[in-house]
Backbone:
């Protein structure tokens, strides 16, 4: 009995892992473990019945969280844009621009993937739409099957890291940080990762030119003014929408929720302008948005139940002692955490990792002096691999569902491996060069750092400062009088001698 009381936290965590491996839904696994171990703790005298009285308040707190409103807004925005044919138009336009180059279609897929990531934030939508549109075209013009499938899957996962990413919203909520700071911090790593994908295709086009041939002249139907007009009418509107949404968030003009609402309205306007908005499209987008939002809220409720009981049995202290005792300080902690997240990503998607792992790791990272925004972006890049690495990568499954029968599953797996390696390199770059994750005002961050270390100067009291300024002339006068008295005494002593 005493052994069970002393090891309640690891038993609870182990039971959760067993439930997940058995295939039970994550939300119900979390909630069930929390309730069952809460009852066991009450029977053992470790907990009181009052612990369950805090649950309703916590659940209502989740429902009242305005930050989470950004999830349905950005999801709806992405679905409207994706299903109104924006991806197809973008791919056709950028493909015409890069057509004369070797690997031009691959470049087009990566850039369109980045643009879709900045407008949708949903990996499934990006991968499926790009797989349906671009994969047949790439195969038709002689692209290597592995390269074509790998590029599509990797470019789709950019929605994980490039704002407005849904995982960054969840991460900000779990870390207790601003969504705007998470977006700003992830922006440059997202661009660097996109550049690494482009660099890989460029190198491959030199080493294996037959793997990514240029488009034949007959396929490049747009030239001159027609191409310019297509670029202006196809590329400019989504770029303006991205600037309005992300720019206003970065500049502090709008909150992420307001930016999401503006993006949803902008997506509807673009769909109307393209004459592609109808009741069926609107219904499908709203239905999918409702399902995804419900999925997130259910997981959040389950994680709240689990987290409440886990902390009540000192689970947070158990995790803290476990991780703080690692050799190597911050570096050792980051290496172990990234390996843990990478391995868990074989079985869990990013929502589940965000709700289960991040709340356990964040307090330890904070105690080690690690910036939580930087830590969140690092984990987001690492979680991106969960969509890519075989055999359980969700992006690979999405692509498999829309790929033609000529593409084998092994082709998709082998095509994904180089891009998984690139993502791992990106994780290493963030650790080696932490300034890549840049956000907020530098002076403000330095002040926060000094306050955290206890080195910040004491706060200035204005009233005290004014009193000191009023008394200063009197002090100076008294000091002058003392100096005159000392000089007079010295003269008298010399005269007496």
Residues:
């Amino acid at each position: 009995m005493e052994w069970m009381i002393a090891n309640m936290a690891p038993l609870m965590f182990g039971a959760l892992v067993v439930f997940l491996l058995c295939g039970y839904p994550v939300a119900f696994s979390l909630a069930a473990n929390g309730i069952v171990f809460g009852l066991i703790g009450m029977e053992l005298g470790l907990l009181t019945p009052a612990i369950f009285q805090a649950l309703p308040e916590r659940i209502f707190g989740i429902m009242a969280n305005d930050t989470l409103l950004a999830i349905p807004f950005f999801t709806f925005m992405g679905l409207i844009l994706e299903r109104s044919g924006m991806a197809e138009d973008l791919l056709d336009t950028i493909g015409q621009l890069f057509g004369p180059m070797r690997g031009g279609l691959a470049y087009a897929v990566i850039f369109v993937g980045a643009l879709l990531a900045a407008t949708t934030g949903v990996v499934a939508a990006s991968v499926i739409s790009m797989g349906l549109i671009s994969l047949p075209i790439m195969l038709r013009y002689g692209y290597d099957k592995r390269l074509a499938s790998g590029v599509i899957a990797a470019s789709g996962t950019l929605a994980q890291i490039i704002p407005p990413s849904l995982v960054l919203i969840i991460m900000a909520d779990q870390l207790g940080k601003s969504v705007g700071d998470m977006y700003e911090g992830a922006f440059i790593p997202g661009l660097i990762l996109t550049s690494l994908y482009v660099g890989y295709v460029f190198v491959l086009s030199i080493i294996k030119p037959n793997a990514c041939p240029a488009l034949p002249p007959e396929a490049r139907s747009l030239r001159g003014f027609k191409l310019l007009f297509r670029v202006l009418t196809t590329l400019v509107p989504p770029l303006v929408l991205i600037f309005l949404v992300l720019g206003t968030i970065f500049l502090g003009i709008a909150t992420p929720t307001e930016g999401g609402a503006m993006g949803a309205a902008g997506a509807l306007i673009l769909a109307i302008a393209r004459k592609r908005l109808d009741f069926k499209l609107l219904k499908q987008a709203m239905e999918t948005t409702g399902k995804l939002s419900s999925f997130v809220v259910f997981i959040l409720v389950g994680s709240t139940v689990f987290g409440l009981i886990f902390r009540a049995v000192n689970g947070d202290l158990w995790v803290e002692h476990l991780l703080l005792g690692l050799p190597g300080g911050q570096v050792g902690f980051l290496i172990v955490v990234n390996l843990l997240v990478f391995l868990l990503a074989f079985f869990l998607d990013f929502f589940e990792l965000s709700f289960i792992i991040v709340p356990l790791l964040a307090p330890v990272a904070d105690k080690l002096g690690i910036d939580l925004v930087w830590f969140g972006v690092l984990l987001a890049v690492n979680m991106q691999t969960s969509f890519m690495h075989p055999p359980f990568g969700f992006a690979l499954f999405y692509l498999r569902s829309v790929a033609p029968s000529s593409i084998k599953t092994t082709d998709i797996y082998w095509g994904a491996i180089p891009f998984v390696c690139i993502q791992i390199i990106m994780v290493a770059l963030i650790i080696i060069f932490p300034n890549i994750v840049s956000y907020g005002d530098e002076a403000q961050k330095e002040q926060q750092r000094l306050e955290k270390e206890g080195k910040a100067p004491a706060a200035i009291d204005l009233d005290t400062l004014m009193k000191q300024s009023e008394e200063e002339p009197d002090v100076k006068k008294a000091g002058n009088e003392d100096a005159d008295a000392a000089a007079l005494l010295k003269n008298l002593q010399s005269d007496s001698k």
